[in-house]
Amino acid sequence: MSKFRLKMSRLKGEQVASQFGFEALPVDPFKIAKDESIVVEAKKPDREGMSGCIVFNDDGVGIIYATHIRSEGFRRFTVAHELGHYFLEGHPEEILKTAPVHFSKAGFTQGHSSIEIEADHFASGLLMPTRLTREALYGAPVGLEGIQHLAGEAETSLTSAAIRAAECAPYPMAVVVSQGDQIAYGFMSESFKRLDRLRFLRKGDPLPYTATRSFNSEEENISSRKSICGSTRLAEWFGGEKTIALEEEIVGLGSYGYTLTVLSSDLLAGDPDEFEDEEEKLVASWTPRFAYGR
Fold first, then answer.
1. Checking CA distances to 210, which of 39, 110, 219, 273 falls within 20 to 30 Å?
2. What is the pTM (predicted TM-score) of this model?
3. Mean pLDDT value across residues 12-36
């Protein structure tokens, strides 16, 4: 899966948000679905195992989203993810090769399934377009508090806001999602990557022996959405030679079953006016493809 394809998926989400008239947060995926004559229904909360599904048939397109995870932000992200399967070029055709119904588990935990990863990036771009995300972050504190502010403004899940913040933050920041003693995935801002020659965190890598690993050893911390803040060093997480001090902000994600860790430092925050706008230029110049059924 190339970075270019993921970027194009995210930019397609941004383009769709603009196309449907959303010039401020929050972007409403339910309204976009309605405007496209896509029927959206909630799944019974006693049925777990998936976050949502999309159905392509002769009568039209339908989306079903899960309700066993109580977060409204996660449900909105799920609907946005399924819209990715509708709007992204090639997704309907790929899905219809096997069946008219496609089940998803949105939230960047789908392993190496290319269309699922692309749909997640579409959803993050749809719900949090680059310009609007930067505007929300510029007026907010560095780290977890800023991510929580973005999640509130965008009405999306904390994890998706954390990932989008790492992509758009004008200061060095990394976010890590973990479960037990293993890493599920991690994202770093471009300025964070430049701090040193860093090791990239991959799915299944063991968590370093930091506050996050200790936090995960107590299930109650995750289920009760407990949060703590500690300190760590860049090299403890990513290797390298520099002993840069970082804040290690940790929060349990409740019924989602994972933990979010935010690594940042007020001392590393730079001037937001220096942040490059290459993606915005790419959005403006990009010609979108047609969606299914058009």
1. 110
2. 0.86
3. 98
